[in-house]
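Training component of the fellowship. As part of building independent skills, the fellow (R.M.) carried out the full modelling exercise for a liganded target. The chosen ligand was adenosine-5'-diphosphate. The inputs are recorded below so that the supervisory panel can assess the work.
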Amino acid sequence: METIKVYNPSTGNLIDECANLSEQEVKIAVDLTVNAFPSWSKKLAAERSVLLRQWHDLIKADKEVFAELLTAENGKCLSESRGEIDYGLGFIEWYAEEAKRLYGDTIPTHDPNGAVIVTKNPIGPTAAITPWNFPFMMITRKIATALAAGCTMIIKPAEDTPLTAIKLLAYARKAGIPEGVFELVTGDPKMIGQIFTADARIRKISFTGSTQIGKLLAEQSAATLKKLTMELGGNAPFIIFDDANIENAVKGLVSAKLRNSGQVCISPNRIYVQQTCYDQVIALLKASVSQIRVDDGLQEEFVVGPLINQKAIDKVQALISTTVKQGAKVIYGGKVHAKGGLFYEPTILTELTDDMDINQTEIFGPVCAVYSFDNEEEVIARANHTEYGLVAYAYTESLGRAFRLSQRIESGMVILNSGSVGTASVPFGGIKESGYGREGSYYGIEEYVEVKYTLFSGLKLQ
Ligand code: ADP
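Fellow's submitted model of the complex:
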């Protein structure tokens, strides 16, 4: 069977290839994951913690090797790859600790001769499917949580970026994480998705990717009633009020927007700027974006790398031409970069209105789509006018307004006066069609356990 070929999006060169597994091979890997569960779940939390910690330390010692591979297969620049690795290692470290703190409860008894305990038990063998935009962090954040809780996990990385995942698996083995506890398969996503979802022994699936595939997996999982964690699409508003520190707001916007060339589910998708500071924001934004270099990611400084593949370029290009036809103005960029290939110019679109297609489309490219607004009430309504609800950003110096935004914005995460969302200690996730379930923090591990109530009656206490 043909292998899956992995190309460097900056150069178009073949980096490596990986197995395109048959149905039978995938099923064997699922069996390994299932068979490893009894012994892994019985290990002491402290033992699991030590193995996770060893995995963490081995990766950390080879951080540069991982960073170069990540940049090669994904295209993001080295400084971003290093940042992603730190972020991803944070999850292993966090859950190595959290493994030891999966506390249950005792509840005042309702039975004069009884006692009530509540324990948290690993849900069982689990599976995960991950996207290409964070090839390192997406894997560690799912695997570390599952393993810490006492679950085993089989993972299918994205076809564009399986190499980082394969290296992570090799390091897990070196660290002593046994076969079956962390399994990995590569091959036809539809076939693998069907095997994962149809297998009643797999008790949970964690998926990060498009809303469309998330819904399909949820449908497929209904027959075996699997627990699901769904991290799906986003349509993040980024609101700048005239009472904000405007320079900080633009800095936060540019770093959030151009990270990974805008190919991030939490990337600012609709930038709402209050009319009273609109000209100032646009001038600063243009000045800031024009200073950013577009280049192959193997640079020390921050550069905007290529998009992941030709399909991504075509999608961004088509979206921009539709938006312009609908009346928007391109005030910066707007086409494939002079370097050619998969490089796209950072772009600023203005004079946008909410009835344009781009308003309800996840852009997934380095495109700033700027709208103007008049007042708080109006912008909150407009921000909430989307089927998604992953994250919202806002800049304001008003405490009351910040609190109102925190309360009224419909999303799983509200980020005020910062462009940075993630770290291992916070619950990452969305509402509405951005999905359900959380990753990171102590909430994340709850997704991998079942709560069990036991009544010990007849204790002859009276
Ligand atoms: P994107 O558009 O960002 O690639 P997708 O949702 O298509 O988002 O992909 C995210 C992950 O889902 C990838 O690992 C991809 O291979 C996988 N995937 C795509 N189609 C299916 C499917 N039918 N069943 C299971 N997984 C799928």
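The panel noted the following from the submitted structure. The longest strand covers residues 115-122. The first helix runs from residue 23 to 42.
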